[in-house]
Amino acid sequence: MIRKQSITHAGVLAVVVCAAVCCLAAVRPVDTPSPTAMSSWWQPPDNLHARDLFNGPWGTRYAPDPHAEYTFVRPKTGGFNPGVIVRDPQGREWHVKQPSGHHGDEGPSEVVLSRVLSALGYHQPPVYYLSSFKMRDQSGVHLERGGRFRLAMPSLTDHGEWSWQQNPFVGQRPYQGLLVVLLLFNSSDLKNSNNSVYEYRPPSGGSPRQWYVVRDLGLCLGKTGRYRPQRNNLEVFSRTQFITGEKRGFVEFDYHGLHKELVDGRITRADVRWAGALIGGLSERQWHDAFRAGGYAPDVAARFIEILRGRVRDAQRVALIATK
Fold it and tell me: How much is the pTM?
């Protein structure tokens, strides 16, 4: 009986070790992207200082009208926050993510992070924030809680999810840099179901373009975690860390969310400095515009920005961190 138990325990240990090794090995590129293909993931923001972080890359043309009457289409399914799908007077369809008393309001934080990523050269769909809106349904017209409005565009077709673990960009500097920026914001939702491969057909014509997009970004600006992460909470966010040290040549982070294999033992000082230099190009005005786009009160925005800019400085001077 003792021998049988020993074999059983050894077998369990072998399975656990094998699973851990396989999990790490699974984070790999499927092929090497060409410089042209890299534009599907990231495009260098040559005019970063001039980018509009209030209206975003899609501008006012694609923004929801705060004074319009929206028609209820159906409930929004999936995700922690409730919401609705509505149609505006122009016939455009909007996916509205509304606040939940239990889970917190993801809309403001999603818009902020989306604005920052798009400014840095990472593709994003059109997302905006309204604090409230008028909606017509079977009971008549009434005022609804606002939230994140994401536009469904005919020129932007969702072709399904892409994998953090296996894609052509794994290990490339813009891939690593994106992870660093998400960690800087305490993004806790690094799961493949939040990723979409879009086909974008420019309205002006030209060949369709493929975009790898991280969306549903609202689970950030709080505390990371696998089971009870907190989002959009200034006091909680202020008590967390960003970089905690270095181990075996890789930077360590205060990250406790999903898929730690993407973070642990994979991000170098050079990756962090690259991301720090990139996001460090945002001006004070641009930071405030991003939070204004998310509907934040100026005093709350200022405190979030102070913490985030401190983390950017930490990324830029990452060579000074202690090793283990």
Answer: 0.89
Query: Using CA atoms, how far apart are residues 307 and 61, in angstroms rounded to an integer?
Result: 32
Q: How many domains does the chain have?
A: 1
For residue 66, the model assigns a pLDDT of 98
Q: How does pLDDT run across 54-78, given as a tens digit for each residue?
A: 999 999 999 999 999 999 999 987 6
Distance between CA 148 and CA 125 in Å, rounded?
12
Name the residue range of residue 185's domain: 37-45+62-320
pLDDT of residue 12: 39
Judged by DSSP in three states, 57 sits in coil
185 in a domain, yes or no?
yes
- Asked if the structure places residue 203 within a domain, the reply is yes
Instruction: Extract the residue ranges of the chain whose pLDDT is less than 50.
Output: 1-25
Residues 6+ apart with CB under 8 A from 48: 119, 120, 281, 282
Backbone angles phi, psi at 246, to 5 degrees: -145, 145
Q: Which residues pair with 187 in a beta bridge?
A: none
Residue 315 lies in a domain: yes
User: What DSSP designation does 92 have?
Assistant: -
Map 242-295 to HEC letters.
CEEEEECCEEEECCCCCCHHHCCCCCCHHHHHHHHHHHCCCCHHHHHHHHHHCC
> Coil, helix or strand for 189?
coil
Closest CA to 51 of 106, 144, 114: 114
pLDDT at 203: 84
> What does the alpha-carbon distance between residue 213 and residue 124 come to, in Å, rounded to a whole number?
6
**How far apart, in whole angstroms, are the C-alpha atoms of residue 226 and residue 308?**
22
Tokens of 73: 């289409």
Res 137: pLDDT: 97
The backbone torsions φ and ψ at residue 202, rounded to the nearest 5 degrees and listed phi first, read: -55, 135
> Domain for residue 19, yes or no?
no
For residue 25, the model assigns a pLDDT of 46
Sequence-distant (6+) residues with CB within 8 A of 321 are: 243, 245, 246, 251, 269
Report pLDDT for 105: 85
